Amino acid sequence: MFLLVIAAISILAFTLVSAEYRGLLGPALDLPEGASALAAALRNVALCILAIDGALAVAVGAASFALARAAVRPLVEARAREQRFAADAAHELRTPLGVISSVAQAARDGTPEEQGSALRTVAAHALEASALIADLLTLARSPEGRALSREPVDLAALATRATYDARARADARGIAMSLDVHSAIIDGDERRLAQLLRNLLDNALRYARTRIDVAVRVEDGAALVLVGDDGPGVPAALRPRVFERFAKDPESDGSGLGLAICRWIARSHGGDIAIGQGSTFAVRLPLGAYPQA
Question: Cα–chain-centroid distance for residue 162?
């Protein structure tokens, strides 16, 4: 359509210029020299118009391509996330659904006690599958932060609460927990940030031998959350991909999604997460525009 409009305008412009030249030359057009001069002038005008049209066509074509690509990119990314979610869900749900199916069939003609035990097993695996779906849905979303419910959140208070919630499990295993927190207020989604801290503590509880250390402080203009343990540390082969989905130690009984979700949450808040020495995970998040204690 654009090319048709340009062509119509160019024809109109050429016609007007031709009429103007003919009016200027007037009687001279009856002479061979006048006709030759007019033809040469009109040829130059035509070449000039074609050059301008070509430049406009290239510029508009490039702009249209860029705009179309920018408009389609979110759809392509959404489609890729959808395909990844479907593949991951199909792969990871086979185990709990297979257990549910086999246990239910085995208990169909069993005693009331056997059926009660089977129902508990089915319920446990159903909850596991539900939690897995929730984690996969989180990772399928874009980490741009548009879906976050932002408000002023003090990471020190969240870390204190998460440590308190995990202390009973730590005490049961004889693991000491230290807490060194200082106020660090950010604009964030409290529920997601609590999930991040919970996942980091769950990971630490899985590997710690005797101690877990939790710290929150302000450093270099950003909020820094540190969660470390005295466990064996992340294997060297796993460190480069420890924050990828399903990347986990073969000896672990986790889903391999916890740290991937931590990275998703950190990045959706404009920050990031990294692994330091041993088993220390560091989350760096931008501070909010509030007075920091």
Answer: 25
